[in-house]
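Progress narrative, Year 2. Work on Integrase from Amedibacterium intestinale advanced from sequence curation to structure prediction during this period.
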Amino acid sequence: MKRKDLEEHIEEYLLEEQEDEKAKNTLIHYRHIINMFVSSLPDDEITKVDFMRFKEIMLEKYKPKTVSNYITIVNKFIKYVEMSMDESIQDFDFNRMKKYYSKQTLKNIKIQQEASLKEVLEPIDLKRMLRMAKKLEEWDLYYIMKAIAYTGVRAEELKIFTVENLESNYIKVKNKGKIRNVIVPQDLRRDLLKYCKNAGITTGYIFPGKKSGTMLHSTTIYKRLKKLAGQCRGVKKSKVHAHSFRHLFAIKYMEEYGNISELADILGHSSIETTRIYTRTTDKMKRERMERMKY
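Result:
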């Protein structure tokens, strides 16, 4: 296998991933990693040692979790190229790829998951941030926090909150190739409709961007939330990140009801193992619960 063999298959592979209904941002990420991988290789004949060298370079630059993601993408691409060059294989499909064995793929990194997190957004943090947003009259942020904290949606899924969709307590969302119903509690729905009325929002996104017909970008949302956290006494800015309010929802739901399979459905996870990541707490939170235990 030569570098040009890999280069010639990049577009074909990304097209296969697109037809497998991968999200636009996922495809952009795949392209970036594959281009980085291919450009690191020598022009002539490539060996497993060259692939291993790429892994070593990545480990020097990035965190193990990031490298693990890169290796997963690279291994899929390597398998695809090998399968495409194998004349005995007529039609490609991803199920066949999973079973396909390649000597060229890289061993992934085993990452030991910590039993506890160092920092997690807690209910008291949410209350302080809501109070500050109210004080500053940043009503869009106020209701964005409530929307995520009471439904568990991802930041990029906030676009489902439109005036039209708020006619129901159930909103269909498609994300990462899966469709699920987001349940909007009645109190939240009432609050959001009141917010729309006060803000003069009569149609479309209830959290609009500056440009007409656009939605506030998730990056903008979290920059503003971090800034808001910095204005709240007792709230660490480091606690506010891409999934902190969704994480808070998951912990609260488990505290109240303890049904992880139900929570997986609500969050849109196909694997309960993914849901477990969202239910991890800090040592401080574990201790507080144990202090309340009585026999």
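The first helix runs from residue 3 to 19. The chain has two domains: 3-99, 123-291.
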